[in-house]
Amino acid sequence: MNTKQIYVTKISGEKALFDEEKLRNSLKRSKADDDIIDKVIEKVKIELKDSITTKEIYRMAFTYLRKNSSHSAARYKLKQSILELGPTGFPFEDYISELLKFKNYTTEVGKIVDGHCITHEIDIIAERDNRHILLECKFHSDQRRFCDVKVPLYIHSRFKDVEEELKKKAGHNDTVFIGGLVTNTRFSSDALKYGLCMGMYLLSWDYPAGKSLKSLIDQSGLHPITSLLTITKDEKMRLLSQGVILCKSLADNPAILKTLPISPIRTVKILKEVNDICVYT
After folding, report:
1. Which residues are 135's β-sheet partners?
2. 4 falls in which pLDDT band (50, 70, 90)?
3. Number of H helices, E strands in the chain
4. Are 71 and 96 in a shared domain?
5. Residues 197-229: b if buried by 16+ CB within 10 A, e if exposed
6. 57, 153: one domain
7. Residues 146 and 174 in one domain
8. 146 to each of 207, 225, 281, how far by Cα in Å?
9. How many domains in the chain?
10. What CATH number did the domain enclosing 265 receive?
11. pLDDT tens digit string along 197-215?
12. Which domain holds residue 35?
């Protein structure tokens, strides 16, 4: 079958020609060996059919990858792992805080701040040098959802209220205050245009290019525990409720797993996967 003639259906409903290189690049992010990537791509190409969805292609690639390299499969499912941080969105805020710490910011999560008119709860306040970013995190459990222009409009108005009050405080003469928005999905074109026009800090799954959320995770190697394939959804939720967000936290402190009702044999398997993910990032 000539894959150049195969059209795939995106989540948005748009259709595009199957791009083998795009699939290869996404598999490379999993740190799988080249021979495994070649094998996965060949298996996927055999199963291709016209109008196949990107979700079906992902599912096939993930299944084949998991059979050959479980820790690579765990990294490959990164977008899905972020979606699994719900449903409250609070673990997402903690996760973004950890990623910002990797970039040498000090962070505070869920802080109540006085504005000029009213008080506001700021999801994350990130500080580095004289730069203070006041961030709102918009978490979506459905990757088809996105932030439209109403979101940065609302967030920027809150930021301006807080900024006015913060500038009155002593010691902030040289401080640069920036309002920001982070989402695990994407921005509409108008949301992006407005945010950039207002000088906002913007971070989404694929924006900005080279410095996006997925790029930041790749650079830091800080994968969420929802990436793990050896623990159940309920066990992930229990760990998240304890504030355990990162695979690295389990690698650094394996005793955390004693809080779960799991056998010693499963504990060994879980820690092997954790260490594989952390070592190979």
Report:
1. 124, 180
2. low
3. 12, 8
4. no
5. ebebebbbbebeeeebbbbbbbebbbbbbbbbe
6. no
7. yes
8. 13, 24, 28
9. 3
10. 1.10.150
11. 999 999 999 999 999 999 9
12. 3-76
